[in-house]
Design goal:
single chain; 0% strand; 142 residues
Length: 142
């Protein structure tokens, strides 16, 4: 069984849209995150490989967020950003956040079963890790 609280609170999507009540904000954040994931993984497993994992994750996630079912089909070598934004923005903000978080966790879990948790964490670290707390080096006085 999928734990929705774990799903929602542990993804980069939840951190990026914290406090947002607008499904368009969730949609744009999800599309940005997905582009970062594609950029991280396509040199290693190819665009078709990344897309295949995404589609499988969408298929699995659709059992709990039905609107994701349409993402399980489409072009074999890419997931169009405009399609993601359109689909997610058509949901309530809560449904978009739940579905997006569920889909991201499903994707990470599926990738982990294929290549191992350690490698998955390293490959997705730039996307998944929360930003460092405190002021950045640029914000610090000289």
């Amino acid at each position: 069984m999928i734990d929705r609280e774990r799903s929602r609170s542990t993804t980069p999507l939840a951190r990026r849209v914290e406090g947002a009540r607008d499904s368009m904000a969730v949609a744009c954040a999800f599309a940005e995150i997905w582009a970062e994931i594609e950029d991280s993984l396509h040199p290693i497993i190819g665009r078709r490989g990344v897309t295949a994992l995404f589609r499988r994750s969408a298929h699995v996630s659709a059992a709990h967020s039905a609107f994701l079912a349409t993402l399980a089909e489409g072009e074999p070598d890419r997931v169009p950003r405009d399609r993601l934004v359109s689909l997610f923005s058509g949901q309530t903000a809560g449904a978009a956040l739940d579905g997006g978080s569920l889909l991201l966790n499903s994707f990470r879990d599926l990738l982990s079963t294929l290549i191992g948790a350690g490698l998955t964490e390293r490959l997705l670290q730039s996307v998944w890790s929360p930003p460092p707390s405190g002021p950045s080096a640029q914000d610090s006085p000289p």
